[in-house]
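User: For a benchmark we're assembling, each entry needs the component sequences followed by a predicted structure for the full assembly. Here are entry 17's components. Please fill in the structure.
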Amino acid sequence: MPNYTAYAAMTLDGKIAREEQEFVDWTSKEDADHYQASLKKHDVIIVGNNTYQTAIENLSRRNCIVLTRRVTSPERENERLVWFNAEHDDLDAYVREQGYVGPAIIGGSKVYAALFGLIDHLYLTIEPLVFGSGIPLTDGRQIGTAMKLASLKQLNEQGTLLLHYVKAEKKDIP
Amino acid sequence: MPNYTAYAAMTLDGKIAREEQEFVDWTSKEDADHYQASLKKHDVIIVGNNTYQTAIENLSRRNCIVLTRRVTSPERENERLVWFNAEHDDLDAYVREQGYVGPAIIGGSKVYAALFGLIDHLYLTIEPLVFGSGIPLTDGRQIGTAMKLASLKQLNEQGTLLLHYVKAEKKDIP
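Assistant: Structure for entry 17:
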């Protein structure tokens, strides 16, 4: 059974970018190092097309399932890249079919929101910055999932935090 | 000089409510206790009208400056409550004039965003929940403030975190 891990970095006011398709250059070096080292542990990356385009140089070297509405069934672009419409096909079934065991989900907002139900582990970095306005971590239908904090680590002196959450036992949230 | 402290509780995806004017009943008991105990330390509460209305029973017992566009100059409703238009008048000047030394800023989104520049201390509670959609911690113009983590505390077993941030030395953020 595949084990889904999501990675996200946000400001303390819950923003992952100032605007759509912004290249992430505002996170700390410590977070960038953690993120790049972590991605190597996964056999496939699941990513929305906007996010993919902002990091294409890096991501084109990895197996990627890129979510887009432009296809109606999975379309393989090359050895590494598949376009996939998660509203049309069952992503989890596809991941199993392909034999992937450790997918990483790396956003953006709509992807985190749409796939939250699948996530077993979430590594959430909180940078001690405030954007005020911008793109939220999640943007989608209401979810109402409870997680549990498994561990936390302060990455630097300003106070960048790396929080590791795991799916909580199913329970109603108030 | 007044020392401004903001309090906020959000889900791990940065939401302070599922919808406008929702009464906050989804935070942990530990956070609710911390919040109620903390408010008592402040000589005045600065709050947006929507948030004020959701907690009026509790807040009507305290000195409140309630932000609203419905007035053009400060209007005193009673001994405790003043209506104030922060787009029209200088809130910090008013606070000083009134002799308040420790205002608490308690939201919502637009108030946090509009007043972030004033905040010396921020106590941010992160509940291990995901709402997916909802009201963000900040909603306003772009800010770009750097803070510094002063301390953190885990409040319960699920992993509710209480983060204490202070204003960072002025510096450009990337």
